Amino acid sequence: MIKKISQMTHTQLDRLMVIWLNSNSDAHEFIGQDYWKSHEVEVRAALPNAEIYVYETEDEILGFIGLIDNYIAGLFVDKAYRGLGIGRQLLAEAKKEKDDLQLQVFVKNTQAVTFYQSQDFAILTTQLDEKTNETELVMTWVKK
Questions:
Q1: Does the keyword Acyltransferase belong to this entry (predicted)?
Q2: Which residues contact 73 (CB under 8 A, 6 or more apart)?
Q3: CATH topology of domain 2-142
Q4: How many Cα atoms within 13 Å fall on the side-chain side of residue 91?
Q5: Predicted structure pTM score
Q6: Where does residue 16 fall: left (phi above 0), alpha (psi -120 to 50 degrees), or beta otherwise?
């Protein structure tokens, strides 16, 4: 079930952080895990200020999407539940709420690039992420 979190509890935030760290480490083997760990405090502080939609069962959050206005700051699904359509459902929820969306994704994260293209996102431009020295795509989606 997908729901919007309006008042995030410490338990929810802790679970989102676990999913965030594990997903980034899994999807970005080309970036050291130390990079992600060094951003934990920053992300923990930012999440309660973002628009967050979670996919959860009765007792556990399995994935989430974080939006800042029309920017997808992240879409993450627990590794054990990937490939079950959870990410697609979370993205569909964001598309229902917004007329257009934008995101950035590393070129080397080919699985994510393919996923977003399958969800009607188009590549707007390519740029260098100066923090990681990795090439990333800026992708956009517009409601039809």
A1: yes
A2: 46, 50, 66, 67
A3: Aminopeptidase (3.40.630)
A4: 23
A5: 0.93
A6: alpha
pLDDT on residue 6: 79
Stated as kind and residue range, the H or E segment containing 44 is helix 40-46
Q: Mean of the pLDDT values across residues 21-31?
A: 92
Quote the CA–CA distance of 55 and 99 in Å, as a whole number: 21
- For 81-96, the DSSP string reads GTTSSHHHHHHHHHHH
Residue 81 CA to residue 23 CA, distance in Å, equals: 11
Helix (H, G, I), strand (E, B) or coil at 112: helix
Q: Which of 101, 106, 141, 137 is nearest to 122 (CA)?
A: 141
